[in-house]
Design a protein that fits this description.
alpha/beta, 4 domains, SH3 type barrels
């Protein structure tokens, strides 16, 4: 194992050495969390990794969001890596103001759940809670524009560090490459992940290109880097000279799922210094160095859905003994979607075709989530929580079934489209063989436990079929599916179709959402 350390200051050296050794051990162990995997198939590889090394005179561009992770990343680059040519870059991707909750509710009260809308007492309580949230956020200075709040904090951190800060606008690119596909996916009943596309097309696409151009103008002969505060690791595989994307030391903050679709040929110029740390350590570093963003709450989702709480507001709240959590102008994600996607009401039905409710559009629910439909709890046939199991696009219906463990939520395999391999073409066949040997795992949602893979098939259409060793629960069209070999990301794509667990009967003559085939009564038409 080869590890080359940068000249870090003494307090961080031992921690980095220990974390890198642990990370190396993790990265050389295949998927071991599968109960059905044969012990003989689980043997450590002998791969050797060499971490990237940023030299003091390299051209370094750190992408900053105004959050604590990117702020600490900039501080580490400046003070611990000794970067002399460090520039901060802030991406401006969104400037459309959010609609205040009170305006949404007054204009469209039909968005509220029937149980609240039809009860004056509950509606009054609901509004009182929301008004209290808004008043608290206003008191502590939450801005209506997440972009301006974040840019202000980026400049404050850079002023402390003595680092120049550039603001680059990618709003048009973000709208075209991320937001429009995101809306289109939801409008047809899928569940896309905009963060995956943002990383591929914007942060490690347009921003990467812009940084490469800046570096060429400054000094074509120098090595340049795009550095971010992601919890992930890029390292060089010594025997092959390839660069691999690996999971970080803090598995609870692992963000490789969201990075799985970036072009692997770009890894040579990408660096993630936080791979060696636990999230709690980043907070400690921020506080010990008195970084202005030390107390900002972590992001809870997309900026355009949830407002930013700036550094100044967070510090005032901490002084007053308050803990601010990113609230939202929208109580539900579907409220946000309804601002951009036209409503297309339809029925919510059970497997036998019984109509039990109404929806505003197929985008209102995701396969695997609670349906929110109040069922008769006095009848054993309908009591308990009901879950969304399918979407019938032809009939504009959301299909629900009883219980989280119902068989309609389990899949034996998936077919993925828009597939990206994070390996060279010559290595794909080997990855397939390793999957058949029980060495490859899949993750279908961020931070979901890794699931063992039984086989991988490359289809003539260019899509990829992933067969699970054990059935997977609650998969939905449009979700990203990521393959791992040990800690290494080897490929990813978007779920196009689910192949239901073998215990579920198949009815071939029914129209569905291309995600599964569910039995429906012949009377459930139109």
């Amino acid at each position: 194992m080869l590890i080359r350390l940068p000249e870090l200051k003494r307090p961080l050296v031992l921690r980095r050495v220990v974390c890198q050794v642990i990370a190396h051990l993790h990265s050389t162990v295949p998927c071991v969390n599968a109960a059905s995997a044969s012990p003989t198939a689980i043997s450590p590889t002998q791969d050797e990794y060499e971490d990237q090394h940023i030299a003091p005179d390299d051209l370094v561009f750190v992408a900053m969001s105004g959050g604590v992770d990117s702020s600490v990343t900039a501080s580490l680059l400046k003070h611990d890596y000794g970067c002399r040519n460090l520039t901060a870059v802030y991406m401006s991707n969104w400037s459309i103001p959010r609609t205040p909750l009170r305006e949404i509710l007054s204009a469209r009260t039909e968005k509220l759940p029937d149980a609240i809308k039809e009860s004056p007492a509950r509606l009054e309580q609901f509004m009182r809670v929301q008004n209290a949230r808004e008043q608290e956020l206003a008191k502590y200075g939450s801005a209506s524009s997440c972009g301006e709040t974040d840019w202000k904090d980026v400049r404050a951190v850079c002023a402390e560090l003595g680092v120049p800060a550039l603001r680059m606008s990618f709003e048009q690119d973000y709208w075209t490459d991320v937001f429009e596909p995101f809306l289109k996916g939801y409008s047809v009943g899928s569940t896309p992940n905009p963060d995956v596309n943002c990383n591929r097309y914007i942060k490690f696409g347009k921003l990467y290109d812009a940084v490469a151009e800046l570096a060429a103008k400054q000094d074509k002969g120098k090595k340049w880097w795009l550095v971010t505060g992601h919890y992930a690791r890029v390292t060089r595989h010594v025997p092959t000279g390839q660069y691999h994307l690996l999971r970080p030391s803090d598995k609870g903050k692992d963000q490789t799922y969201y990075l799985s679709n970036i072009m692997h040929t770009r890894l040579t110029n990408i660096f993630f210094p936080l791979h060696q740390f636990q999230k709690s350590e980043i907070r400690e570093i921020a506080e010990s160095r008195d970084i202005v963003t030390a107390y900002r709450p972590d992001s809870q989702g997309l900026c355009f859905v949830s407002p930013s709480i700036g550094a100044e507001a967070a510090r005032r709240a901490r002084r007053d003994g308050k803990t601010l959590v990113k609230s939202s102008a929208y109580t539900r994600f579907s409220d946000f979607l309804s601002e951009f996607i036209e409503q297309s009401p339809g029925n919510i039905v059970t497997l036998d075709g019984t109509v039990v409710g109404r929806h505003r559009g197929l985008w209102q629910a995701t396969v695997g989530q609670r349906s929110g439909v109040p069922m008769n709890q006095g009848n054993p046939a309908t009591q308990g929580i009901w879950y969304v199991v399918d979407k019938n696009i032809a009939r504009n219906e959301i299909v629900i079934a009883q219980g989280r463990e119902n068989k309609w939520l389990y899949s034996d395999a998936i077919v993925c489209t828009d597939w990206t391999w994070m390996v060279d073409d010559s290595d794909i066949a080997e990855i397939v063989q390793l999957a058949r040997a029980g060495m490859v795992c899949v993750r279908n949602r961020s931070l979901q436990p890794l699931l063992p893979v039984a086989d991988i098939d490359a289809l003539p259409s260019g899509d990829v079929r992933v067969n699970f060793a054990t059935p997977a629960h609650g998969l939905a069209n449009g979700q990203t599916s990521v393959l791992y070999l040990g800690d290494r990301v080897v490929g990813s794509g978007k779920v196009l179709k689910r192949i239901l667990h073998a215990t579920a009967p198949v009815v071939d003559d029914l129209v569905h959402d291309n995600a599964s085939t569910l039995p429906m009564s012949q009377g459930n038409v139109g």
